[in-house]
């Protein structure tokens, strides 16, 4: 792919240090910032983002322009408004945001400033996962360089616009990826999700209008405002516009990540980019976007990796990081491992998640050891129903239960084999 | 009103509520844990799940939480749907995974909301077969036990303790299934509202340690409706008893007063009623100089009758901790002109002033409920956190009106607790504190000012002047004038402003300034209210009985020589006067009679006759709270030994002495009626309680539940025959499980306990309210005396004169070097109060004693430096020839140039508070 068709990663050279400000500007960086801050009407820019069809890359796929559209604008809007960058990447199998932050930190800075201008934010908080030490150091350096260049602080480039960017390293909980839990964590409270409404756009961080966006989502913004919605839509192969980072884990030959058009067929990802299965390993199924998505199997391999087709197939696009199950790996072991993670990462707020997931984990361990019971198969089924959306406080348990729910659908035999057998 | 549908049937409901409240109010049994009527909804436990239907054609429905669903027009839920029932059962199953199932040894067993909800939701058989998560418990101090393994993580404890009550040392720790509720380390819970955890917790994690020490099941305890005697607020309580011992105090909901919560002094101060050293038989000194020895009730009535036969040589000291009826009996026995109040004259006069301001002015007095409803509050002079803790909790809620306004605007329903807090963030209604030292509401106050009582009074006058320029001006520094203007502005902008003051500063100037502010506001806004905290539980009641003065006057009268008998009723003269002066004044008095439930040092030293008087647990009576609200408390147990109410001892003696006044006093009601017949302030008093003869279905109300076990076996060691229940001529209650517990027919305010089938915990309360968080069905039982006079002019007072100091006539400021220090070594003493330690009855309770810290003299760091004193160094105060030596503690907020004296402690009670000469 040509560099201009990979807006997210074009400056990234694996194994080499990222571009500094001079290098980034030489490569065309900060052009968007210079073109829009104080020069382009935020409302007009918002329309471009809306038209681009950009959908959130954190996993839920909510249209970014629509999300920003709920932020109060104009003279009556509160003076303090916050853009929060969700860099708390902790989805198992996923390292796309890390790849971007470590590979091209200045693009993060530019993207944050441009996005902040569009919603007229007073402050940006970049909420970084604690384990991302290198990304944090690089971001800190990039922010210092940007400040030196007058891209941050009071009166940016003489525009009269004032913006501060704060780097916040979190203590590291999966639930901080949930935007309202992230806001609570940023306020110094327990990282427990909030009830919506009120939505963050009206009452978020410290009661002020706030919007939370994923790192990868924001990396698209400078390019969209520079090159337009039509160009961006054209990058995608299917219904969703733009490109996306994909990757793979499991017994496949290559792991990625690769920046590819949205709508790239699953089979192409698996066979061309990941290089197919390791020799001697057969394909059984995959989780298309991290651990909190449902299994897809052979019959789904021709689906395009767009939000809606994957959702319609009973899974979620998620982060686009495939987790591939082969025929020599224990499904029960894999599920137990996943549910161990989700049970551990429950924030402890609502009952089904806090107390249900550890039970599921223990049952799966029993099945993995061939000591499951028929009653427990019912109990697992019960959890797939009662940890679903709307029954729990947030989407953590529904995501956690999705691999189990789809495994019960596609790989029932594995569970039967996990039952205690009479001697 | 909105029409909602529950299981297909339409109901007209209030749309400002959520569907859980609505369902409970309509009588549905819908289980819940994390929701609490006073705390609102947070959607954590998922126990109140119901099916939610889009419209009449939707039969499948989707599960949702009733507590998080607004009762909007056309809302349709199914409580009985298969899916909802199955889900609710699963929630219990999850909660039970790590629950220890230790009900047989759990203090909560039998009154456990978790038990009730488990039965209600239908979970019965365990399917989980793996290991349980376990926790370590903490020692949380003398009040609260901790058993974390029982926890179901409903989060109510931290939501109450931190968010509602402002505590800082209890939190949720860890995550996932390991989430832990406790302190960061073992230690005494700091909040004076920690006892509420025992009721807030739906299971046995937080329990009442004082009950645990001599544990007994709820169903084996007798219970009675009572009124707290540990401050002037009159919070309603249930007293629980077994085998003659009071076992605990529970909150008794009164919409107008304490609502759902009590303070720890009220909850744990009961222990004085169980003391083994309390007098239970009369003690008579038969020989002058000899030791008192037990005597029979008949014998002592004869003696006392002889002494009282001719009242001209008798004086009586009535008490603010005795009932209205007992004080009335004493006043009758000795005559009003020889009836004194066993409090310092300054206190007696100050209480009289306050009552005068309440009934002689136009401003109505606020109940606690109304204090909570106020949307701007000025506290002038009163450290409410220490003198009336439950009021501090109400004021802490009052600041939330601003938050609710934000929430209303943002479309967040008020019951959606976290949503309101997140939307409102720091929005708070104004609360201005002006007190001698910083108290526990500082964290939610708009501004605060610390000063001597005179300075506070001048600040108060400055506020009044800022409201109404026609009122006298006060000399205050510029910064204080600015604060006064800000305060006035906030009070004027409010819909329901409130001025709080009280007798804590022992300052007429302070209460008069407060009344002036309230009066000035009232002219501008008729919704203005005032509230004065009084010294003790029945200070107002005592003040309604005409007297010849305070303790000083009584001692002077005794000293005059024509007095042969002094009757001290439910009071300790050593706490209100110099013991040496007391002994000197009484030296020629032939008969000193003490009636008290407490063994006092004075009685041991000086009494010729000690009569064991009933405590609140032993006999009924009426008390009048700070707002002039008369309330009746009932005995929970038959009086032990020869104990009887003070008025009965006096009645018996009067009869033996040939006096006729007490001839008609058979029941408490006879005295209450006689008081009511006096009219005036006491008009209507007879409505304070139903007559003792009131019956339902011909039977009295049982104090014990029908499940009380061992009804006959208790006495089987002595006799196989069941003894008759001891008589209680004073209330319609019976000391027995027999009778007619008729929750549907008797107003809940009169019931000795609240219980409904399936609702064994305190959460049964929902069934006794017409509307959750509203008044009890049939109303709260009390009589408001002391109505304001709408036509009376607002009170006006002059500010105290400026003190010597800077030329501008304001007060000296050490910060600018203008403070010369007390040149002659004479320091004004400011009374400071402590929740645990300043109140007489509770300091006789072991649990409160364990929670008290020894009193220290409070000195500002600058003054300590000036005096060359380190913290803990002893300092001697000399006042009127009396000396008091205590270690000092530094206080940043005590006014410079003054010394804070913790009032009411065993070490400090009776020491005069009025300027002191210090010695190191």
What does this protein structure show overall?
Chain A has about 425 residues and is of the alpha/beta class. Chain A folds into three domains: about 230 residues, Rossmann fold (3-Layer(aba) Sandwich), CATH 3.40.50; about 90 residues, Ubiquitin-like (UB roll) (Roll); about 90 residues, Up-down Bundle (de novo design (two linked rop proteins)). Chain A has a four-stranded parallel sheet, with helices on both faces. In chain A, a hairpin with a 7-residue loop joins β5 and β6. In chain A, α3 runs parallel beside α10 and α14 runs antiparallel to α15. The longest helix of chain A is centred in the last third of the chain and has 18 residues. Among the domains of chain B are: about 90 residues, Ubiquitin-like (UB roll) (Roll), CATH 3.10.20; about 80 residues, Alpha-Beta Plaits (2-Layer Sandwich), CATH 3.30.70; about 180 residues, Dimethylsulfoxide Reductase, domain 2, CATH 3.40.228; about 110 residues, Beta Barrel (Barwin-like endoglucanases). In chain B, a hairpin with an 8-residue loop joins β13 and β14. Chain B starts with a strand and ends with a strand. The interface between A and B is large, with 37 and 45 residues.
């Amino acid at each position: 792919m040509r560099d201009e068709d990979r807006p997210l990663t074009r400056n990234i050279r694996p194994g080499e240090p990222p571009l500094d400000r001079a290098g980034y500007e030489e490569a065309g960086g900060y052009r968007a910032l210079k073109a829009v801050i104080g020069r382009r009407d935020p409302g007009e820019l918002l329309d471009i983002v809306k038209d681009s069809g950009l959908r959130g890359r954190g996993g839920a796929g909510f249209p970014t322009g629509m999300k920003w559209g709920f932020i109060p604008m104009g003279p009556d809007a509160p003076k303090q408004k916050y853009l929060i960058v969700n860099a708390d990447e902790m989805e198992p199998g996923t390292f796309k945001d890390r790849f971007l932050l470590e590979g091209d930190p200045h693009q993060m800075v530019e993207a944050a400033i441009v996005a902040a201008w569009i919603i007229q934010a007073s402050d940006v908080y970049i909420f970084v996962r604690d384990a991302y030490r290198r990304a944090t150091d690089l971001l800190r350096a990039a922010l210092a360089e940007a400040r030196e260049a007058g891209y941050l602080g009071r009166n940016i480039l003489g525009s009269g616009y004032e913006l501060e960017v704060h780097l916040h390293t979190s203590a590291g909980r999966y639930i901080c990826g949930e935007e309202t839990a992230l806001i609570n964590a940023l306020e110094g409270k327990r990282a427990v999700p909030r009830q919506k409404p009120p939505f963050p756009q009206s009452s978020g961080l410290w009661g002020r209008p706030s919007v939370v966006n994923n790192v990868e989502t924001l990396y698209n913004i400078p390019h969209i405002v520079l090159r337009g919605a039509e160009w961006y839509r054209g990058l995608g192969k299917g219904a969703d516009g733009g490109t996306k980072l994909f990757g793979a884990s499991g017994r496949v030959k290559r792991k990625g990540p690769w920046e590819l058009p949205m709508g790239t067929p699953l089979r192409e990802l698996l066979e061309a980019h990941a290089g197919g299965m390791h020799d001697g390993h057969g394909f059984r199924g995959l989780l298309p976007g991290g651990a909190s998505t449902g299994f897809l199997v052979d019959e789904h391999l021709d689906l395009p990796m767009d939000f809606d087709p994957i959702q319609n197939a009973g899974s979620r696009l998620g982060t686009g990081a495939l987790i591939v199950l082969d025929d020599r790996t224990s499904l029960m072991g894999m599920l137990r491992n996943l549910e161990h993670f989700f049970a551990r990462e429950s924030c402890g707020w609502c009952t089904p998640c806090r107390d249900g997931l550890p039970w599921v984990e223990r049952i799966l361990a029993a099945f993995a050891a061939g000591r499951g019971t028929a009653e427990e198969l019912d109990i697992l089924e019960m959890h797939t129903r009662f940890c679903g959306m709307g029954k729990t406080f947030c989407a953590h348990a529904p995501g956690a239960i999705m691999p189990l729910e789809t495994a019960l659908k596609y790989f029932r035999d594995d569970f039967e084999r996990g039952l205690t057998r009479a001697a | 009103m909105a029409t909602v549908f529950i299981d297909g049937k339409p109901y007209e409901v209030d749309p400002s509520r959520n569907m859980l409240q609505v369902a409970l109010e309509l009588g549905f049994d819908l289980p819940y844990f994390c929701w609490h009527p006073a705390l609102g909804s947070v959607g954590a436990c998922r126990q109140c799940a119901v099916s939610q239907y889009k419209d009449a054609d939707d039969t499948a429905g989707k599960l949702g939480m009733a507590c998080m669903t607004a009762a909007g027009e056309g809302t349709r839920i199914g409580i009985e749907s298969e899916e909802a029932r199955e889900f609710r059962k699963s929630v219990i199953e999850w909660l039970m995974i790590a629950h220890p199932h230790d009900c047989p040894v759990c203090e909560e067993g039998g009154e456990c909301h978790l038990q009730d909800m488990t039965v209600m939701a239908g979970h019965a058989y365990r399917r989980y077969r793996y290991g349980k998560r376990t926790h370590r418990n903490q020692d949380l101090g003398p009040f609260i036990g901790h058993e974390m393994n029982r926890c179901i993580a409903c989060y109510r404890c931290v939501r109450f303790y931190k968010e509602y009550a402002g505590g800082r040392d209890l939190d949720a720790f860890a995550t996932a299934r390991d989430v832990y509720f406790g302190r960061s380390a073992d230690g005494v819970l700091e909040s004076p509202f920690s006892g509420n955890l025992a009721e807030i917790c739906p299971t046995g994690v937080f329990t009442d340690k004082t009950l645990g020490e001599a544990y007994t099941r709820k169903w084996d305890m007798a219970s009675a409706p009572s009124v707290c005697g540990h401050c002037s607020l009159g919070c309603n309580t249930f007293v629980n008893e077994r085998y003659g011992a009071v076992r605990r105090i529970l909150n008794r909901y009164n919409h107008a007063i304490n609502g759902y919560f009590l303070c720890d002094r009220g909850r744990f101060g009961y222990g004085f009623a169980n003391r083994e050293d309390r007098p239970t038989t009369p003690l008579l000194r038969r020989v002058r100089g000899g030791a008192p020895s037990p005597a029979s009730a008949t014998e002592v009535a004869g003696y006392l009758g002889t002494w009282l036969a001719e009242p001209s040589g008798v004086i009586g000291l009535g008490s603010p901790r005795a009932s209205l009826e007992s004080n009335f009996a004493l006043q009758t026995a000795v005559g009003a002109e020889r009836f004194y109040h066993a409090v310092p004259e300054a206190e007696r006069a100050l209480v009289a002033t306050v009552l005068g301001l309440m009934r002689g002015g136009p401003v109505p007095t606020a109940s606690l409920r109304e204090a909570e409803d106020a949307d701007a509050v000025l506290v002038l002079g009163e450290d409410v956190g220490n003198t009336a803790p439950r009021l501090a909790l109400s004021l802490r809620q009052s600041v939330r009106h601003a938050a609710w306004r934000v929430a209303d605007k943002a479309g967040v329903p008020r019951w959606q607790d976290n949503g309101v807090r997140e939307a409102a963030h720091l929005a708070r209604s104004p609360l201005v504190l002006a007190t001698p030292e910083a108290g526990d509401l500082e964290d939610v106050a708009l501004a605060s000012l610390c000063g001597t009582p005179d300075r506070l009074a001048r600040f108060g006058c400055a506020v009044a002047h800022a409201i109404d320029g026609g009122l006298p001006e006060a000399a205050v520094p510029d910064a204080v004038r600015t604060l006064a203007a800000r305060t006035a502005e906030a009070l004027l902008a409010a819909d329901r402003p409130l001025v709080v003051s009280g007798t804590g500063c022992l300052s007429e100037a302070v209460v008069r300034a407060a009344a002036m502010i309230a009066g000035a506001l009232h002219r501008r806004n008729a919704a203005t209210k005032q509230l004065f905290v009084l010294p003790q539980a029945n200070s107002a009641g005592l003040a309604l009985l005409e007297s010849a003065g305070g303790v000083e006057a009584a001692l002077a009268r005794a000293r005059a020589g024509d007095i042969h008998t002094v009757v001290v009723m439910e009071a300790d003269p050593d706490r209100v006067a110099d013991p040496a002066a007391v002994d000197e004044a009484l030296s020629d008095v032939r008969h000193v009679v003490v009636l008290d439930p407490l063994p006092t040092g004075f009685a041991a030293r000086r009494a010729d006759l000690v009569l064991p008087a009933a405590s609140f647990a032993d006999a009924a009576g009426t008390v009048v709270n700070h707002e002039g609200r008369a309330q009746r408390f009932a005995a929970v147990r038959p009086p032990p030994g020869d104990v009887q109410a003070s008025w009965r001892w006096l009645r018996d003696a009067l009869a033996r002495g040939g006096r006729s006044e007490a001839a008609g006093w058979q029941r408490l009601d006879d005295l209450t009626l006689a008081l009511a017949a006096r009219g005036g302030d006491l008009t209507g008093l007879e409505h304070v309680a139903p007559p003792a003869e009131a019956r339902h279905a011909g039977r009295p109300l049982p104090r014990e539940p029908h499940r009380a076990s061992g009804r006959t076996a208790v006495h089987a060691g002595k006799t196989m025959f069941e003894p008759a229940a001891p008589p209680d001529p004073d209330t319609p209650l019976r000391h027995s499980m027999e009778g007619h517990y008729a929750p549907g027919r008797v107003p809940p305010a009169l019931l000795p306990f609240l219980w409904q089938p399936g609702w064994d915990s305190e959460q049964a309360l929902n069934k006794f309210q017409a509307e959750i968080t509203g008044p009890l069905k049939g109303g709260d039982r009390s009589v408001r005396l002391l109505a304001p006079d709408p036509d009376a002019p607002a009170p006006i007072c002059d500010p105290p004169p400026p003190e010597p100091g800077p030329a501008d006539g304001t007060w000296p400021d050490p910060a600018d070097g203008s403070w010369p220090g007390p040149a002659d070594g004479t320091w004004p003493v400011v009374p400071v109060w402590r929740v645990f330690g300043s109140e007489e009855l509770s300091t006789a309770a072991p649990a409160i004693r364990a929670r008290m810290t020894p009193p220290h003299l409070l000195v500002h760091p600058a003054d300590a430096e000036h005096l060359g004193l380190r913290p803990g160094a002893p300092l001697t105060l000399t006042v009127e020839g009396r000396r008091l030596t205590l270690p000092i503690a530094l206080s940043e907020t005590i006014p410079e140039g003054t010394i804070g004296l913790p009032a009411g402690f065993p070490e400090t009670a009776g020491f005069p508070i009025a300027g002191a000469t210090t010695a190191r």
